Amino acid sequence: MGGALKRSVASSKRTALILKPRGSASLRAKGAALALSVRCDDKRIYVAFDDGREVSKPLLPFLREASARERRNCRITDYKTAIYWPDLDEQVGVDWILDVPEDDVLELAGFKTMIFKRS
């Protein structure tokens, strides 16, 4: 399976999003993981990950200002790389929760960006 090729506007390079097997040990060693569940209280967001960890962070301003019902109405995105609040139209990447590079989380989810030089 592969993603669609797209031409970079800034250069003559093309990039592709390629699916690859999950579970790279080196990415996990760096702290990358995928979200399994999420909950919020009035002060913190708690996310359980597929490696067994539960990590919490203080609520972001948009969540502090939201009602308890709006905070509860959230879902983990399809590839388990972000949390989305539809009532608020806001999303937070698990890279922020884990304090790891976004590319590491995306690669663990099966995405890898490759750059091809134009021939």
Please tell me about this protein's structure:
The protein has 5 helices and 9 strands; from the N terminus they run ββαβββααβββααβ. It has helices at 25-29, 61-64, 68-72, 94-98, 102-108; strands spanning 2-7, 14-19, 35-40, 44-49, 54-58, 75-76, 82-85, 90-93, 111-116. By secondary structure, it is of the alpha+beta class. It has one domain: Uncharacterised protein PF10387, DUF2442 (NE0471 N-terminal domain-like). A 3-stranded antiparallel β-sheet has the order 1-2-9.
List keywords for this structure.
single chain; NE0471 N-terminal domain-like; alpha+beta; three-stranded antiparallel beta sheet; disordered N terminus; 22% helix; 5 helices; globular; 119 residues
Write the topology of this structure.
Blueprint: E1 2-7, E2 14-19, H1 25-29, E3 35-40, E4 44-49, E5 54-58, H2 61-64, H3 68-72, E6 75-76, E7 82-85, E8 90-93, H4 94-98, H5 102-108, E9 111-116
Antiparallel strand pairs: 1-2, 2-9, 3-4, 4-5, 6-7, 7-8
